[in-house]
Amino acid sequence: MTRILLRGGTVITMATDRPNAERLDILVENGRIAAMAEHLEETDAETIDFSGRILMPGLVNAHLHSWQAALRCIGSDWTLLEYLAKTHGGLASHYLPEDMHIAALACALNQINCGTTTLGDWSHNARTPEHADATLQGLAESGIRAIFFHGMSHRLREQAHPAAEIDRLLAGPIARHDLLDLGMAIPGPQLSRAKIAIADFLTGRDRGLLVSMHQSGGRPGASWEAVRDAGLIGPLTNIVHGNDIPDEWLKSFVDAGATFTVTPENELGQGHGFPVTGRLVRLGAAPSLGTDIDTAVSGEVLIAARIALAQQRGYDHEQQRRSTGLFSPAPTITSKQALAWSTIEGARALGLADRIGQLAPGMQADLIAIDARALNL
Predict the structure, then answer these.
(1) pTM score, whole prediction
(2) Closest CA to 108 of 100, 323, 284, 173
(3) Most buried of 102, 223, 312, 354 (most Cβ within 10 A)?
(4) How far is 149 from 351, CA to CA, in rounded Å?
(5) By C-alpha distance, which of 7, 12, 57, 51 is closest to 377?
């Protein structure tokens, strides 16, 4: 048994029943948190002094395409249409399996360097089984925890997601890697006929897999209505973006238990629309966060959190100014809420809330340390 005692850190647990920050010792046994207290006496554990450091849950980047790390910031000035045409309409088809491996490894290592310990890798360029396996190998070599959302090339889909490939991945590469789980990256009802969308949802439901899809730019159409009427929207449904979804649809998704992943920097910059952050909060829900495309943004999920926070505060100030002539007298969204979007809510969106997202006994010890000694904390 491996026992490690992290002593004397300033701990941000993100647990709702604990202070925002507190001095705690944390005992880790075999990768899980065994105990937390102000002072733990463990003479048989390896002890590491974290005095002057902040310990907190590892960040969760719930939506990112690792294969695009090889194209980092090439499209920083592209609109959404340019991105789709140049990346998916051109560059994606040139990827070999070894390119997928290198990109996934580089992406995951960069995420770890940014404080991300869990990644939702929405891999919509897994053109062949070899492409998928190479991506999984790159993720595994990095040591990151990840949900590998298996996807195909990005286009209007006329065929259902290949269930046989999902089963192969579950029985093979996924089963071999403790830190990797499987999800499905589907075109979704916005980009599929109703028959195809329903088939994809059923493939995920029958295997207990999270099914994730893009949705932006307006009202859900007939395919979404068919999926809803079939009772297939639920906690295993993850909607990325969600810009401009009408209020009644947004409420129906939230009521059904679906999760949303907002990628604010990319959404604002490329033309998806304004993030649904505040609208979710008003419904008693909250977004998870992703950085989306390395082709345009840096990949730092804390930057995504700050942008989401600032954008929503700015919107709320403007609404208050229009109604009263003055800005909001108090913050409408707090910094801790934004931090929760990149920890607790990310874990929930990826179906991992029982393992990560907060620090508590029994949880995985996915945590990061920030050196704050210069601040005399």
Answers:
(1) 0.95
(2) 100
(3) 312
(4) 12
(5) 51
